[in-house]
Amino acid sequence: MIFTNVYNDARRAEAYDKLAFPGTYYLAYRDLPDIIKTHVAGRKALDFGCGAGRSTRFLKKIGFDAVGVDIAEDMLEKARERDPDGEYRLVPDGDLGGFPGSCCDLVLSVFTFDNIPTMEQKVLCCKEMGRLLKPEGRIVNLVSSPRIYTHEWASFTTRAFPENQFAQSGDKVRIVMTDVADQRPVEDILWKDEAYQETYRQAGLQVEHIHRPLAEEGELYEWVSETSISPWVIYVLKK
Q: Which residue, among 28, 51, 58, has the nearest Cα to 231 in the 3D structure?
């Protein structure tokens, strides 16, 4: 299970560590508490691809006993600095073999699958995540919508990459995060809805719910495309 991860980089880790929930990112997290409350029973959670720990701390804040795992030691160092009492584990190549089966009520993955390059690797990860679920457990997989790479946003710009509009599932796309000091383009892997649906099918998972958040006028931020186009897709999955 081999990952490529642009965030496995000390400079990116430093920038990402300072990122909270601004702008477009706010929409990624805004609806998660209600989605989780509706679909998840229990309090034991794994944050798959926790990075600098932002989503793990989010889970703890809404009442979960959460463990964060990631392949990037630079990111985990930042997570431990911000949350010294938390549990953050390095999982080389995304291997979850150190966790027993049926141990989690929730496996949350926020943006991680944007950086897993192939169907085979995505399916393996989904199978492992599914293995950790208790019988009534759920996976919540939050990913970038393909349209995030072809529009302008409060927190991102793609105008320098017109080739993104021709990308198909599995192709690399580029985007610049405007809320951090590190303005180097990020390379992600485009994955359309039909490709995710097939990924989950091959992994033996069922899609229980799909949510595409939209911004509302009067919220805290100056929106660009967010009120009419959802930048994120949130999949709720079960075995």
A: 28
